[in-house]
Amino acid sequence: MQTPDSPATPLAETISPPDHAFPTLTANQMARIAAHGRRRSTVDGEVLVEAGDTAAPFFIVLRGTLQALWPREASEALVVTLHGGQFSGEANVINGRRAIVRLRVSEAGEVIQLDRHQLLALIQTDAELSEILMRAFILRRLRLIALDVGDVVVIGSSHSSGTLRVKEFLTRNGHPFRYVDLDRDGDAQELLERFQVGVADIPVVICRGHDVLRNPTSAQIADCLGFNQRIDDTHISDLVVVGAGPAGLAAAVYGASEGLDVLVLEANVPGGQAGSSSRIENYLGFPTGISGLELTGRAHAQALKFGAHVMVAKRATRLACDGRRYTVEVDGEQRIRAGAVILATGATYRKPAIDNLPAFEGAGVYYGATPMEAQLCAGAEVAVVGGGNAAGQAAVFLASTADRVHMLVRGPGLAETMSRYLIRRIEENPAIVLHTRTQLVALEGNGRLERIRWRDDQSGITEDHAIGHVFIMTGAIPNTGWLSGCVVLDERGFVKTGPDLSPDELAAARWPLSRPPFLLETSRPGIFAVGDVRGGNIKRVAAAVGEGSIAVAFVHRTLQH
Ligand SMILES: Cc1cc2nc3c(=O)[nH]c(=O)nc-3n(C[C@H](O)[C@H](O)[C@H](O)COP(=O)(O)OP(=O)(O)OC[C@H]3O[C@@H](n4cnc5c(N)ncnc54)[C@H](O)[C@@H]3O)c2cc1C
Questions:
Q1: Which atom of ligand 1 is nearest the CA belonging to 542?
Q2: First vs last C-alpha separation in the chain
């Protein structure tokens, strides 16, 4: 480790302020921040934040300089030097996760210090500073990712589904990591073999420089990186939102911004299905479209800004609904109590009945077409299964990088299942070949997908093709299995709400109140369902966001009684 006296090695692209990522605040802006924190002097070499610290404070330099440093095995690299009027921190300060870089005083002086709660209070009340700080934090995080500055190394292979899962988990959490590809790095492969790391152990994740995790679950990675704060079993949240897709995130933003104490549980990563959409073109206000990752990433940051607690890789496994307060069981162990619950668990993909399909998931079979998958199949032939809007978007998107896209559709055409604008784009795109009345019937390959077979249902003829990338876009099944009979479901398993509940169903469910259920309220008072998990919902991002925000208005009314 270098001492404060020895200059740190600059990164190849050391960031050169000033810019939007490293603005200099005016005297008036600094005075407004100072009102929320405390002034303190600093001494040369003092470490204000250590990499790995949780709940790192936030600093504004009044006099002297601070350096953000990336600690590496035996040295450290200079990320940026902060001068008078500039401030520390990046996305982790807002989400309360571990610090990625060390912050050290390089020239003694004076700073204003705020803890996370003081900072959150500031950005909730000062719109101008909120914009400056949020923009800087997000841009800084993007630069850390671009510079490969991070505390995680993933050693994996594009032939392993675990590798894709882990990379996706880190990427969708916006967490920077370095990737060592075993297919290209013979030395790394030999090293793993010497340590008897088998195929089932891939990927190996080196977390925060010390933990070596073999093919870890998302929950193990989240624990190691300190993604989640501790759940207090005795605390009763005003509102527990289950699921952090667009519907759950909207509920979190509106709930927290309107003063509710909101806890969000997400089984995987915030963003839901929308997070895996390469381009959402029909969401209001984005005329050129927006990637699902960007839209939901912004919503996640917004929910955190308003003070919602978002827990990732935490699955709700049971809902206890006897009595006035509700209890959500998490991963079969912890229990969370809530005054009101919003169910926003969406739906999971409907899959063709092919026995060995799970063996190729993430290794040639995908359920989303993001730039990451598009990169994997650049210049190749691919197949998209399904005739709905998601399939159409995927086909158009993939056709921009793939050599040819085969669309396999069970029905006689697209007209009944797809928006007109998409049908036109598909018809006009010479790289897309539409196969109607056709089904995917077999997948073959050794470790990863190499060949597929489809059948023309009219002629009965099957065809084999050397296609290694298949995108399944065939609709979804609601994630309601964990609700333990608490609320009334429709015949397809979606949650029934408001006027869709008949008097007989309410009587059978022992609805206890004289008023009927509010719009979006289930057969239990204070339990709401929003987004794709709700029966009758229009499966669109805008519908999910609208329902998530509307439900909060009714949550206030149920909490008042
Ligand atoms: C590839 C693709 C492209 C799409 N493109 C568009 C588009 O362009 N325009 C458009 O309007 N719509 C689009 N959609 C549809 C849109 O994404 C969905 O309608 C929307 O995401 C639904 O939001 P939701 O929050 O209700 O559910 P979801 O997005 O499904 O989110 C539900 C969340 O709940 C979590 N969860 C599930 N069970 C549990 C549990 N037990 N405990 C905790 N968490 C749980 C899941 O992990 C998930 O994150 C697309 C969908 C896909 C798959």
A1: 11
A2: 59
Going 322 to 325 to 329 to 334, the CA torsion angle's sign is: negative
Cβ-Cβ contacts under 8 Å for 185 (sequence gap 6 or more)? none
Q: Where are the beta strands (DSSP E) in 183-294?
A: 204-207, 211-214, 236-242, 262-265
Q: Output the pLDDT for position 540.
A: 86
Cis peptide before 270 (omega within 30 of 0): no
Alpha carbon distance 40, 37 (integer Å): 10
By DSSP bridging, strand 309-311 and strand 262-265 are: parallel
Token readout for 460 is 């009965």
Pairing, β 404-408 against β 381-385? parallel
Three-state SS letters, 43-101: CCCCEEECCCCCCCCEEEEEEEEEEEEEECCCCEEEEEEECCCCECCCHHHHHCCCCCC
Integer angstrom CA distances of residue 223 from 154, 166, 205, 313, 363: 16, 14, 13, 9, 26
**Whole-angstrom Cα distance, residue 491 to residue 504?**
15
Q: What are phi and psi of 345, to 5 degrees?
A: -85, 0
Which SS3 state, helix, strand or coil, does residue 123 take?
helix
Q: Distance (Å, rounded) from C-alpha 84 to C-alpha 315?
A: 45
User: Ligand 1, from 165, 172, 273, 331: best to mutate by most atoms within 8 Å of Cβ?
Assistant: 273
* 36-94 tens-digit pLDDT: 999 999 999 999 999 999 889 999 999 999 999 998 777 889 999 999 999 999 988 88
Mutate to test the pocket of ligand 1, among 281, 300, 334, 541 (most ligand atoms within 8 A of CB): 541
| φ/ψ bin of 156: left (φ > 0), alpha (ψ from -120 to 50), beta (otherwise) | beta
Percent of residues, the chain, with pLDDT higher than 70: 97
Atom of ligand 1 minimally distant from the CA of 476: 53
As given in the structure block, the two tokens for residue 323 are: 């009595």
Mutate which of 266, 329, 345 to test ligand 1's pocket (most atoms within 8 Å of Cβ)?
A: 345
Burial group, residue 19, by CB count within 10 angstroms (0-12, 13-18, 19+): exposed
The tokens describing 270, both together, are 């915030």
Closest Cα to atom 38, ligand 1: which residue? 345
pTM of the model: 0.79
As a whole number of Å, the CA-based R_g of the chain is: 25
Q: Is residue 506 pLDDT above 90, yes or no? A: yes
Q: How many helices (H) and strands (E) does the chain have?
A: 15, 27
Question: Could you give the dihedral angle defined by the CA atoms of residues 423, 425, 429 and 433, in that order, rounded to the nearest 10 degrees?
Answer: -20
- From ligand 1's centre to the CA of 273, what distance in Å? 3
Q: Given the CA of residue 369, which atom of ligand 1 is nearest to it? A: 1
At residue 5 the predicted structure's pLDDT band, cuts being 50, 70 and 90, is very low
